[in-house]
Structures are given as C-alpha cells and as structure tokens.
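Researcher: Sequence recovery benchmark, item below. Answer with residues only.
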C-alpha cells in the first residue's frame, strides 16, 4: 500500500515540475512521438526497436505500446537510437497495446 502511494506522489510531483518549467512531456516521460507529413512520410521519435519490417507494414516497439504502420512500398529511410523516418504510401497507423 505504501509503495503505491509513493508512486502516485512521485507522479504528481513529476507532473508539477513539467508544468512549472514548461517542459515537453515527451522528453520527461519518454513518450513516443509520431509526426506525419502528408501520406508519404512518417517520423517516429523515442522508439525502442523495430519488431517487423516488410514492404506492406512495419511494426515498432515504443515504451508503452507498439505502432503498426500499414501501406505500400514502405521503407525505413534512416534510423538512429532516437528517431526513424519511414517513407512510402502510408495507409494506416495503428497503436497496439
């Protein structure tokens, strides 16, 4: 019981600091960022790994979910430890738990 109360308190403190210093939540919490440009370009930041890579879909592991990108002629243009860029005809972006 005490551990649960401590986690809630530390979460509340973290949220207060984020608001007070106007910090980007993705940076503090390590949340995945997905930016889409049109239907042909996708930038993913704060991902953990590539689970599956095919011409019709790419599955990516993020901290709290998996991201499935569905389309045609999909390719990973580049990737680093922090971000990756996917190009092709992007038809769907699905978040899986």
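Model:
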């Amino acid at each position: 019981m005490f551990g649960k109360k401590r986690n809630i308190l530390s979460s509340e403190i973290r949220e207060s600091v984020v608001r007070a210093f106007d910090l980007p939540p993705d940076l503090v919490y390590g949340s995945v960022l997905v930016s889409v440009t049109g239907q042909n370009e996708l930038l993913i930041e704060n991902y953990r790994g590539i689970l599956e890579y095919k011409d019709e879909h790419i599955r990516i592991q993020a901290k709290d979910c998996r991201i499935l990108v569905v389309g045609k002629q999909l390719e990973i243009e580049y990737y680093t430890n922090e971000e990756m860029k996917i190009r092709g005809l992007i038809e769907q972006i699905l978040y899986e738990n």
